[in-house]
Amino acid sequence: MIRVTDARHLGAYRLWVRFSDASEGEIDLGDLVLNDKRPIVVALRDPSVFAAIRVDMDTVVWEAGFDLAPEYLHARAKAAPRAQERRR
């Protein structure tokens, strides 16, 4: 099972995320945030709200309680053109 071990906001709707398998990468969530109509996601359009992330329960969580499955984030990081993987 993949888990998020660290995450940082990079600006706009981008995150840097490290996973329990030692992979890491940048994830642009702009498409999700700008196209999803659920109120909990619409709230993330505010840059200060989006930037307020933390790692909790093995994934990235926002203050309002929105989170994304670590497997989803891992797949997005792997698919990103600029994804960087580092093995320890």
What layout of secondary structure does this protein have?
Layout: E1 4-11, E2 14-19, E3 24-28, H1 30-35, H2 39-42, H3 47-51, E4 53-56, E5 59-62, H4 70-79
Antiparallel strand pairs: 1-2, 2-3, 4-5
Can you give me a brief rundown of this structure?
By secondary structure, the protein is α+β, with helices and mostly antiparallel strands. Helices cover 28% and strands 31% of the residues.
Give the structural class: alpha+beta
Beta-strand percent range:
25-35%
Uncertain spans: 83-88
Sheet with the most strands? Answer: 3 strands, antiparallel
H/I helix tally:
4
Oligomer: single chain
Outline: globular
Based on DSSP secondary structure assignment, what is the total number of beta strands?
5
Approximate helicity band? 25-40%
Separation, N- and C-terminal Cα atoms: 18 Å
Q: Element order, helices and strands?
A: EEEHHHEEH
The chain-level mean pLDDT equals 92
Rg, alpha carbons: 12 Å
Q: Name the strands of the widest sheet in spatial order.
A: 1-2-3
How does this structure look, described?
The protein is of the alpha+beta class and 88 residues long. Helices cover 28% and strands 31% of the residues. It contains 4 helices and 5 strands. The chain has helices at 30-35, 39-42, 47-51, 70-79; strands at residues 4-11, 14-19, 24-28, 53-56, 59-62. It has a 3-stranded antiparallel beta sheet with strand order 1-2-3. Strands 4-5 form a two-stranded antiparallel ribbon. Strand 4 (53-56) and strand 5 form a beta hairpin. The longest helix is centred in the last third of the chain and has 10 residues, at 70-79. It is globular. 17% of the residues are buried. Mean pLDDT is 92; it is low at 83-88.
